[in-house]
Amino acid sequence: MFIDYARIKIKSGTGGRGCVSFRREKFVAKGGPDGGDGGKGGSIYLLADSNFNTLLKYRFTKLYKAVNGEAGRGNNQTGASSEDLLLPVPMGTEVFDITDGKHERLGELTEEGQKLLVATGGNGGRGNARFASATVKAPRYAKPGGNCEEKELELVLKLMADVGLVGFPNAGKSTLLSKVSSARPKIAGYEFTTLEPSLGVVDMGNYSSFVMADIPGIIEGAHDGKGLGTQFLKHIQRTRILLFLIDIDSPNPFEDYMTLYKELHLYDPHMDKKPHLIALSKLDTILESDKKEMLAMMKREFAEHLHEDIIAISSITGENLDVLKDILYNKLQNLNRIEDPVLT
Predict the structure, then answer these.
(1) Which among 99, 130, 157 is the end of a domain?
(2) Which of 157, 181, 198 is the last residue in one of the domains?
(3) How deeply is 314 buried, as exposed, middle or buried, from its count of CB atoms within 10 A (0-12, 13-18, 19+)?
(4) What is the pTM of this model?
(5) Domain membership of residue 62 as a residue range
(6) Is the pLDDT of residue 49 over 70?
(7) Measured between alpha carbons, how far is 148 from 332 in angstroms, rounded to an integer?
(8) pLDDT tens digits, one per residue of 7-34
């Protein structure tokens, strides 16, 4: 089950208290103070782990507590500090502190092994040996351990993929993903078959590949939450390239593209500036005798009005799927060279 939202409570460990103790040795009437310090309480970190792709782990367990530090002991023995608690989350998780009604962004985890400190453990208290001085030779007090931190966190997962599929319901996104990758999303001939995002690895050979994300269908008004749009749109914010998939059987493919483009802009003004490609799906539904003329007309309309090029594909027959994969892969390679000039 894909879960992209969770709320949890966390509590770091309290520091161990300092010890009040005095030496007890044979033939020593009044030994000096020897109370040791307390140990540090465990802190809590979130850890980005590529083995996880959902927040399901946090759906049922709502409270996570680190262990308290141990108290100090006599003979100047320091109490043991507790280990930190590491909570694994998928890469792409954004973290907010929502304690007492606030909504403070703590950070996001986007790289494998990245850690985010969300609650600091209390420091250990000092034992009475620390307070001995020339004027106070036998202190009978020690410090308690530092307090723990208690917080309520909101975890929001935004999928990380190279290519994000954008289209209306039943445009053929799931079918395309199943044909170009090993992913097996649910496929059916009705709208909103896909109710949760799916990821698939597209193999380009020679140990090269890229990740494609199938996002549930977007409808007009999605930026306002219509059709659960805001839950779906967030998953394409971190994709590097957008692949607009338009049903060639639509009464007006050009208007469909403009609607999708508008919804992205209204949701996030920066998202429609991502590199993108427009593909017309279901080419197999067009009669062979009409195909050439129809494609020429559509290519002309997109070129004249938007200066956009398009590609027509069929996930059923496989027509132009290899061409599509090559175009997307080359776009990603160009992005890599721009982002890392060392590669050029």
Answers:
(1) 157
(2) 157
(3) buried
(4) 0.67
(5) 5-157
(6) yes
(7) 46
(8) 999 999 999 999 999 888 776 666 789 9
